[in-house]
Amino acid sequence: MIGGGLAGPEAALTAARLGCQVDLYEMRAVVDGRPRLTPAHQTTEFGELVCSNSLKSESPHTAPWLLKQEMRCGHCALLRLADETAVPAGHALAVDRVEFSRRISEEIAAEPAIRVIRKEVTRLDAPESGDAALTIVATGPLTSDALSAEIERITGAGRLAFYDSISPIVDADSINMERVYFAARWDKGTADYINCPMDRGEYDRFVDALLAAEPAESREWEKLDYFEGCLPIEVLAARGRDTLRFGPMKPVGLRDPRTGKTPWAVVQLRKENLRALSYNLVGFQNHLKFGEQARVLRLIPGLENAQFLRYGQIHRNTYLCAPALLDETLRLKQAPWLMFAGQICGVEGYTESIAAGMLAGIYAAAIARGQEPVPVPRATALGSLMHYITHAEQKNFQPANITFDLLEPLEEETRRKVRDKKERHRIQCERALEAFDAWKAALEERLSAATVSRAGREGL
Predict the structure, then answer these.
(1) How far is CA 408 from CA 424, 427, 433, in A?
(2) Where are the beta strands (DSSP E) in 75-233?
(3) pLDDT of residue 325
(4) Distance of alpha carbon 255 from the chain centroid
(5) What mean pLDDT is predicted for residues 404-432?
(6) What is the pLDDT of residues 101-120, one digit of tens each?
(7) Is 175 within 8 Å of 194 (Cβ atoms)?
(8) Cα–Cα distance for residue pair 360/3, rounded to 1 Å
(9) pLDDT tens, 50-105?
(10) Minimal CA–CA distance to 314: which of 170, 181, 161, 103?
(11) Which fold has domain 168-311?
(12) Phi then psi for 413, rounded to 5 degrees?
């Protein structure tokens, strides 16, 4: 097990609880009485939170709540510790970051099946013939240069990203369809894009607001070298008044069928591949504070009341092109002895990283027992997250947080009968928890059968 952030310790504790012996590697260490740290960390403790201390919403029937409920049902160790070290935070689960990290380190130290090795891993070697060893990589967004190079050697060049440029995603139901139109540029192909047209006045107001917006905080350890082909929209706007009109807001070939004219500028929305109820603002990656993004982007015609499922971001994030490389049990397709968990496998966020670690530990324990791991059902939040990262379009793959648009949509008949979105979400949550309970029961039955079989072989 490589990595002592969130996914690594969770995978180690889960696998140990299920009968595995685990070597947990962490590169942060105390050497000659002095801590050896990464640029982002301040301690050598496991599970150190380097940014926010929030594990998101605890409001019933929200997507983050559902994910955490499934994790609690799955006996997730780190979520239990988060609950025990929680601090008041309204409707969110927030933790005392020092106490949370200390408790994780204590639990790791108290587990006799886990051996901690304070050493940087730079090679990933396949087990020798007959060796049942598995390796789980959960080194997160700051994976070392040496290990990154090793992962690229195994997976192939271009399969590992180092910077995450994310465009905002809006809930399809929150788009004002009376102010937009469907069209493809020059009418080529099918009209799959939603186009938000702007006249000159609307464009000028948008650019003024964008230039005045407050940027997100920059971290000293996260120096972002922007690529010319993927610049933040605020950087493009600062280069000239019409730069956006010749870039991501280019109106050429997008005649408005309602007026017969070409708008002054156009914002295009593209349906997310596996997120059928949401749309991506094409080319709108940015480095603004989330509140500022909402204020500025709602100036776009049709998005006046937009509900954002994800805001734009640009940050350091080492992650795999998971749809090309991983199966639904987080194993590398070309080398099944190697697994990935946490942010490096393509999930985004603290809770999602812990969730991936829990699943990796469960799957690894099944493999160690000589069983084929059974993926968590698609109907669950956990299964939907894993389904997304392993089935999304490879070309435009971006890491994901858990949102309802990743879950299986309700049947059309149910959607027609149930108009209230909160009620739809409640139904989805109930179905997801039922599916998770059934999967967990089958998993426990398989574990019990394997234990009985092993005891019989050993003459116990």
Answers:
(1) 12, 12, 13
(2) 86-87, 92-95, 114-117, 135-137, 160-166, 169-171, 181-182, 194-198
(3) 97
(4) 36
(5) 92
(6) 999 999 999 999 999 999 99
(7) yes
(8) 13
(9) 777 889 999 999 999 999 999 999 999 999 999 999 998 888 999 998 999 999 99
(10) 161
(11) Elongation Factor Tu (Ef-tu); domain 3 (2.40.30)
(12) -65, -40
Find, among 327, 267, 348, the residue nearest to 301 by Cα.
Answer: 267
Strand order in the sheet with 335-340: 135-137, 335-340, 331-332
Q: Buried b / exposed e across 34-63, counting CB within 10 Å, b at 16+?
A: eeeeeebbeebbbbbbbeebbbbbbeebbb
Output DSSP code: residue 362.
H
More confident residue, 34 or 307: 307
Using an 8 Å Cβ cutoff, are 388 and 345 in contact? no
Of 354, 272, 418, residue with least CA distance to 6: 354
Residues 6+ apart with CB under 8 A from 199: 263, 264
* CATH class of the domain at 7-164+317-457: alpha beta
Q: Where are the domains of the chain?
A: 7-164+317-457, 168-311
pLDDT score of 460 more than 60: no
pLDDT confidence of residue 458:
43
Report yes or no: 310 and 166 within 8 Å, Cβ to Cβ. yes
| Opening angle at CA 264, ends 263 and 269, nearest 5 | 65
- The 3 state secondary structure assigned to 382-418 is HHHHHHHHHHCCCCCCCCECCCHHHCCCCCHHHHHHC
Whether residue 400 contacts residue 278, with contact meaning beta carbons closer than 8 Å, is answered with: no
- Per DSSP, helices labelled H in 96-175 are 97-110, 145-155
Which tokens sit at 221? 């350890």
Reply yes or no on whether the pLDDT at 227 is more than 60.
no
Q: What is the pLDDT of residue 29?
A: 85
Greatest C-alpha distance within the chain: 83
Edge to edge, what strands does the sheet with 86-87 contain?
54-57, 92-95, 86-87
DSSP-assigned letter for residue 178:
G
The per-residue pLDDT for 455 is: 45
Q: Which residues pair with 165 in a beta bridge?
A: 314
In this prediction, residue 132 has a pLDDT band, given cuts at 50, 70 and 90, of low
**Higher pLDDT among residues 159 and 330, named by residue:** 330
Count Cβ atoms within 10 A of the Cβ of residue 16 and give its class: 0-12 exposed, 13-18 middle, 19 or more buried.
buried
For residue 46, the 8-state DSSP code is T
> Helix and strand tally (H, E) in the chain?
13, 18
